[in-house]
Amino acid sequence: MVRFKHEATQASGHSVDIGVHGTSEVTWIEAHPYSLYEPFMVIEAKRLPAPSNDREREYVSGPNEKDAKVTGGIQRFKLGLHGGGVDSAAMVGYVEAHSEQYWRDKINAWITALVGIKCHDGATWAASEVLQEFSRDELSGVVSATSIHGRHGSSRSDEISIHHLFINMTSARASEKAACQKS
């Protein structure tokens, strides 16, 4: 049994969109004990595209050096601001325009553009951190990929594995699903 907590507070003081907690005093996951108050899985969600142009790359990192606030989804995991106590996390991309493949390519381009650049937040990016090939569940419309990222800051491990779930929210997908249900 698990419970989901919206806006779960992290040890860093930041909040992740969803924290997954056990329902007993101690939950053991991969030989690590998690208390009732400590999430064993954290989930961050982002809209694709972002709601405004100044947040365009927020799935990966954001914003620029002028603003000290760290808003990037993958960036927060790399810095240990989200999921510092876990080795594996999830991100949900709500695809509101274009295709999942479009967003995978775009996200990978954003990551590749950060390789070799000294970022204001102290994060370093590697070419190996791009999202791997997709797996698609045609029935549910969920497309998934994984990525592995080096971590900085206060984290339990030096790497985090992120499972990316892309959910197509476009009207085209809704029309396809409706047509399938009528058949």
Give a verbal description of the structure:
The chain is of the alpha+beta class and 183 residues long. Helices cover 18% and strands 34% of the residues. It is built from three helices and nine strands, in the order βββββαβαβββα. The chain has helices at 73-78, 100-114, 171-182; strands at 2-9, 15-22, 26-29, 32-35, 41-48, 88-95, 135-137, 142-150, 159-168. The chain has a seven-stranded mixed beta sheet. Strands 3-4 form a two-stranded antiparallel ribbon. The longest helix has 15 residues, at 100-114. The radius of gyration is 17 Å and the shape is globular. The N and C termini lie far apart (37 Å).
Q: TL;DR?
A:
By secondary structure, this protein is α+β, with helices and mostly antiparallel strands. It has helices at residues 73-78, 100-114, 171-182; strands at residues 2-9, 15-22, 26-29, 32-35, 41-48, 88-95, 135-137, 142-150, 159-168.
Labels describing this entry:
about 180 residues, alpha+beta, two-stranded antiparallel ribbon, about 35% strand
The geometry reads as globular
Please state the CA-atom Rg, rounded to the nearest Å: 17 Å
Outline the low-pLDDT stretches.
none
The portion of residues assigned to helices is 10-25%
Strand composition percent: 25-35%
**N→C terminal distance:** 37 Å
SSE layout and pairing:
Layout: E1 2-9, E2 15-22, E3 26-29, E4 32-35, E5 41-48, H1 73-78, E6 88-95, H2 100-114, E7 135-137, E8 142-150, E9 159-168, H3 171-182
Parallel strand pairs: 5-6, 6-9
Antiparallel strand pairs: 1-2, 2-5, 3-4, 7-8, 8-9
